[in-house]
Specification:
15% strand; 263 residues; 8 helices
Length: 263
Amino acid sequence: MPGRLDGKVAIVTGGNSGIGEATVHLFAQEGAKVAIMARREEQGKVVRDAVRANGGIAEFIRCDVSKTEDIHDAVDKTVALFGGVDVLFNNAGGGLPEQFPNESRKQWDYILDVNLSGVFDMCTAVWPLMVKRGGGTMVNMSSTAATSGHSPYVYHLSGRLASASYHVSKAGVDALTRWMAGIGGEVNIRVNGVRPGQIITPLVDREGKGEHIFKNMFDVLQIMDGPGYPEDVANCVLFLSCDDSRFVTGQMMNIDGGLPMAL
């Protein structure tokens, strides 16, 4: 049976671990040729080799999405290797610990460079390639932080929250996604986003206990019990990247176990 991405070329940023790694494997299983982009070369090549060992097609291309020149170089290498781009998953991102009002301008600028400007630069680099191919799909990584506020109770319960820069960067991703979807209709490019909640990845499970750093907050606010996992997000990204979602664009899909929190 043909895969849902047979004949497609896909880019996954931050494809060296967590949600990105799970998506790389799922895309390859569904027939895509996958360009794995990340900063950590050793980790990226491990993912590449695992894909190949399972019969898939993938290549690691080093890319720091906070650097515009890195993005354009990596996209050029993808085209040289695979001939074009049909699917883009802007997954790379992260956060840092400084909290408002003590968050430094250095941290603020870096988080926005990675989480928001990196998405913008990657999309602008890939957009004309998709137009040339007759269309494509883009999925942008947002977060439940894009739409959530918090009370003093939740703040003290959790002990800490994601930084102001993180919340702002993800809200910007939501707005950019909707804006690009608005112009994508005329050129057959669909643009959607995903908002993960309590997903266990190496980035948030820093003590190796299988727990999210904001577990206490999620345990109070989340409808469903327990955490989600990278595969839960990857499955949604695949849906938004293939023809199963052919009539879906401009949407932000929450993968959060049900968080009834928005301000």
